[in-house]
Design goal:
Elements lengths: L2 H33 L16 H30 L14 H26 L5 H4 L1 H4 L14 H8 L1 H8 L4 H18 L22 H10 L11 H5 L6 H23 L1
Helix pairs in contact: 1-2, 2-6, 3-8
The structure holds zinc ion (ZN) (2 copies).
């Protein structure tokens, strides 16, 4: 491997990461914080909007994180080229059923990895040096999606090299996982809640986390550690005691605001 090959791939990977960040986090910001701010204001979880300095910090640290993410992604690519990973490029090497399984397994493994590594970086001896930066966004915006201290960015991206050494994965499966994690992370930091009453308690939906769930993590800190699913928080008893109540209060508040607006319009 030539250094120039590595740098070219790294630059491309970083460019794609930045593009996706601006499309997803920037797109969400443009829609909910700028263009349709008033239309959606009743869905806002914390009523106030963050100050400009928070957006700047979130974007700055997200850029640092993406430099690390794409560096690790480039290393994984060249490790694969050298034959060290379990990545397979011939799609027919495994069945379609296996392909679907591998995507789901990656997502479930990531959810577990995230929950436990997240709890670890909340330990008081680690938290100030690794995770505090992310929690400076106590009222997060979509820009906070990748706003990590560089040490935390390493912890976050480590799931990728771990998985490619354990599980045979097609690049398309890795791509689907990466889009899933980006979408759900932007959703978790959106600052707006759209799910309906009962979502956090109904049998068919309570396994899923909500934007309120992660917003409460940023606001109250030592609770709601999960990423995609509300499984580990339920098993370990780490959901905020008022999670369901806060969620329902949000639903009631937006209903009341809607009724007020309609009454004013009459
Ligand atoms: Zn967060
Ligand atoms: Zn945290």
């Amino acid at each position: 491997m030539e250094l120039s090959d590595f740098l070219l791939r790294y630059t491309k990977g970083f460019g794609i990461d930045v593009l996706r960040y601006f499309l997803f986090a920037g797109g969400a910001f443009l829609i909910f914080y700028v263009l349709f701010k008033n239309t959606f204001s009743r869905f806002k979880i914390q009523q106030k909007f963050p100050e400009l300095l928070h957006y700047k910090r979130e974007i700055g640290y997200s850029f640092l994180s993406m430099l690390i993410f794409s560096f690790v992604g480039t290393c994984v690519y060249f490790l694969h080229k050298a034959g060290y990973t379990k990545i397979y490029t011939e799609i027919n090497a495994h069945s379609t059923t296996y392909f679907i399984f591998s995507v789901i397994a990656f997502i479930v493994a990531h959810d577990t990895y995230f929950y436990w590594s997240h709890r670890l970086i909340h330990h008081k001896s680690i938290y100030p040096y690794v995770h505090l930066i992310h929690h400076k966004s106590y009222n997060p915006s979509p820009w906070a999606t990748f706003a990590f201290h560089p040490l935390e960015a390493i912890v976050q991206v480590a799931i990728l090299p771990i998985m490619v050494f354990i599980l045979p994965l097609h690049p398309l499966a890795i791509f689907i996982w990466s889009m899933y994690q980006l979408t759900l992370n932007v959703g978790g930091h959106l600052g707006f809640e759209f799910f309906r009453s009962g979502f956090t308690q109904r049998l068919y939906s309570r396994w899923s986390n909500t934007s309120t769930h992660h917003n409460m993590h940023h606001k109250f800190v030592n609770c709601n550690y999960g990423l995609y699913f509300n499984i580990w928080d339920s098993v370990m008893g780490t959901n905020h005691p008022k999670y369901h109540e806060e969620f329902e209060n949000g639903v009631k508040r937006r209903q009341a605001l809607k009724n007020n607006t309609q009454a004013e319009g009459l």
